[in-house]
Amino acid sequence: MGVRQGDVVQVAEAVFWVRGTLVNWYLLQDGRDLTLVDTGYPGDADDVEASIGLTGHRPEDLRAVLITHAHTDHLGAVARLHDRYGTPAYADPVEVPHARREHLEQVSVPTVLAHAWRPRVAAWALRALRSGGTRDVRAAEVVPFPAGGALDLPGAPVPVPTHGHTSGHTAFHLPRAGVVLTGDALVTGHPTSARRGPQLLPAFFHHDTERAVATLADLARLDADVVLPGHGPAHRGPVRDAVLRALDR
C-alpha cells in the first residue's frame, strides 16, 4: 500500500517519525538538510524515499544515514541510498562488521520456527518474510561514526552505546529536542507482543539478553521526555519512567 502522509508524523521540532510496514525510521531536519535514522526492511526502500518527499525534501537532501543496529529491518535501504545518491552511512564501530555481514547477529529462521507456537509469532514472521526479512542486505558502505559527543549532522544526534540487542547497538539522544531514539533497546510495541507501552523485545531477538537489560540504565540517565523506538508508537514521558515500565515485566 505504501507510506502515506499520515504515516509521517512530526513528533518534535525538526524530528519526524515514519511508520513503515513493521518498523519505524526517523528523519532529523536542519533547514534543507536531513539525517535518516534506520531504513526499514528491503521491501520498505520505496517507502523510505517516499517519506522523505512527504516532509518536503528530496533524497539528495540526506547528509547521512545513521544505523541503530544492523538487523535486516533497520538496514534494508542503506545500500540503495548509497548507490543512487551517494548517501554515507554510519554505525557504532562495533556494529560496522555486522552491517558489512562479516558476521551475523540476527534471529535465525530455525529459532523463529521454534517459537512459532507462540501467539502472533507466525503471523509476524510471514509479514517479515514478505518485506524481505531473509534477503542479503550487507552494506559495505557503512563506516564508524566518530567518537565523542554530538555528531556533526542534522539534528546533532549524540550516540548512546546500548549494546546487547546486538553487540554494537546504539541509541541516539537529541538533547535540544528532549528526544531519544532507542532503536530496539527499548520499544513500545511489536507484532509478536500483546503488550503495549515501553518494553523489551522478546528474548529470542537479542544477541545478549542480559546485556540488553543492563544497558537500559544508560537510557534512564538521559534527559529526554519523548521516546522514539524502532517498533511501536512514540512514547511521551521521562525516559526514566519508560525504562521502569519496561523492566516491570
SSE blueprint:
Elements: E1 8-12, E2 15-19, E3 24-30, E4 33-37, H1 45-54, E5 62-66, H2 72-75, H3 78-85, E6 89-91, H4 96-99, H5 109-114, H6 121-130, E7 142-144, E8 158-161, E9 170-174, E10 179-183, H7 209-214, H8 216-220, E11 226-229, E12 235-236, H9 239-247
Parallel strand pairs: 4-5, 5-6, 6-7, 10-11
Antiparallel strand pairs: 1-2, 2-3, 3-4, 8-9, 9-10, 11-12
Model description:
This protein has 249 residues and is an alpha/beta fold. The chain has a single domain, classed as Metallo-beta-lactamase, Chain A. It contains nine helices and twelve strands. It has helices at 45-54, 72-75, 78-85, 96-99, 109-114, 121-130, 209-214, 216-220, 239-247; strands at 8-12, 15-19, 24-30, 33-37, 62-66, 89-91, 142-144, 158-161, 170-174, 179-183, 226-229, 235-236. It has a seven-stranded mixed beta sheet with strand order 1-2-3-4-5-6-7, with helices on one face. β1 and β2 (15-19) form a beta hairpin. The longest helix has 10 residues, at 45-54. It is globular and about 45 Å long. The mean pLDDT is 96.
